[in-house]
Amino acid sequence: MTLIKSISGIRGTIGGAPGASLTPLDIVKFTYAYCVKMKERRSKSEDERYKVVVGKDARLSGDMVEQLVCGTLVSCGVDVVKAGFASTPTTEMAVVFEEADGGIILTASHNPKQWNALKLLNEKGEFLNAEEGAAILECAENEDFIFADVDSLGDIEEKDFTDQHLDAVLALPAVDVDAVRNAQFKVALDAVNSVGGIIMPRLLERMGVECVCVNCEPTGEFAHNPEPLPANLTELCEAVKTHKADLGISVDPDVDRLALICEDGQPFGEEYTLVSVADYLLGRVYNEALETGKSMEEITAPYLMTTSSNLSSSRALRDVTEQYGGDYYAAAVGEVNVTTRMKECGCLIGGEGNGGVIYPALHFGRDAMVGVALFLTNLAYKKMKVSELLATYPKYVIAKNKIELSDSALIDRILEEVKTVYASEDINTIDGVKISFEDRREWVHLRRSNTEPIIRIYAEAATTEAADALAQQIIDIANSIIK
Predict the structure, then answer these.
(1) Strand bridging mode 433-437 / 327-331
(2) Mean pLDDT of 57-78
(3) Distance (Å, rounded) from C-alpha 159 to C-alpha 153?
(4) Residue 395's pLDDT is what?
């Protein structure tokens, strides 16, 4: 059994002892602490009510966790809007739609079915920052509970925000529904038997796309490992070929990550989801500037020709951004870190290399629906196969490794030694240590695990062999210190 308490929420396996897994006691304690800190953050008069939106993915423990969370909110005098089965981005947007004071998403994202989690949102429908998350953790540990009296209990209402979310996606100027409909695409969709099976077919139908559903019943019985990696998507790859689909789409259980499959059944690569969407948006601005004589800043306002992704994401986004005369900015790993960086730099588009697309014109959160809508629009305009589109982007390969240590004190020694060995290269230390070899367009990123004595090592180069060789250099340095 596992329970992981972090600044972004509480996550664990269902069942077992309190404090060692995600039990009812832990859920109540953490939800109570969230209410306390929400009220401190947003002070109101006695006659004003607090409101929180609660959404969930389709995993098996969802109903149980939802009842506990909603009951705790009500007992704290907070009104609840139950969004029911709702993707993470839908719940995020519902907070804004409802002008609520916050939101709680019940999902363990790509974790297997025995996991669940509480992901915490502020009044903007965005994840809490590190300071706010730490304050909730401290409050939960104090266990100083005072609940509302019977006359001050909250109320519960139920709403479905699916279509409201899709309305906002399809109303975006960069989404061309007519062009997609005229292209007459056929798509195979793997929603891993979660809420993607509800919202994604509805989006495709509204865009005039024929959808072949694979694992689209929201039963919570995940048909395969729910992380949308190539090794887990063999059924989808076969469906694309069998049904002669133009594209394969895979989403994780809470539908904030998007992985694509080419028409030949080969992975498009989750790193290239964001790259492709960024290429479309940047190219759209660039071409409009050429045609109209306007500056790109005029066209993108209030955003800039800038992009951002985390340090472990592919360099391809930087290459594509600079191709259009834009600027790229790196962020520490973690969605809240990326969104913070995007706000600082006025980014037109950003996200993470795990298939997470963040489009500020819609909202500051990873959103597979807007990713699909933008990708299909680009594909309709380009009039080429998905594999042909992929071939137009810079080719990179990322090797992912890790070093397990018996002594966590060795982590700092290893990171310091790497900085010394590569002192003449471009070094970034905002999240672990990233060494960029600009002359070779390669990089290696080392970062510690927050929960285990592990160093994760990501290395990127033009070929698998070169990426593996770069990672091995770091592993050799680590082993020399360990021994």
Answers:
(1) unpaired
(2) 98
(3) 20
(4) 96
Tell me whether strands 9-13 and 115-121 are parallel, antiparallel or unpaired: antiparallel
- Give the architecture-level CATH label for domain 3-160: 3-Layer(aba) Sandwich (3.40)
Q: What is the pLDDT of residue 452?
A: 72
CA distance 19 to 409: 25
Tokens (6 digits) for 73:
């909110």
Q: What is the CATH number of domain 177-252?
A: 3.40.120.10
Distance of CA 387 to the CA centre of its chain: 24
- Contact assessment for residue 379 and residue 386, using Cβ atoms and an 8 Å cutoff: yes
How confident is residue 2, by pLDDT bands cut at 50, 70 and 90? confident
Please enumerate in sequence order all residues whose Cβ is within 8 A of that of 414, keeping only pairs 6 or more positions apart, or say none: 403, 446, 455, 477, 478, 481, 482
CA 371 to chain centre: 11
Instruction: Write the pLDDT tens digit of every residue in 268-317.
Output: 999 999 999 999 999 999 999 999 999 999 999 999 999 999 999 999 99
Q: Are domains 177-252 and 271-390 of this chain identical in fold?
A: yes
397-482: what CATH class? alpha beta
At residue 45 the predicted structure's pLDDT band, cuts being 50, 70 and 90, is: confident
Q: What is the mean pLDDT of residues 324-339?
A: 96
DSSP 290: H
Q: Which CATH superfamily is domain 271-390 in?
A: Alpha-D-Glucose-1,6-Bisphosphate, subunit A, domain 3 (3.40.120.10)
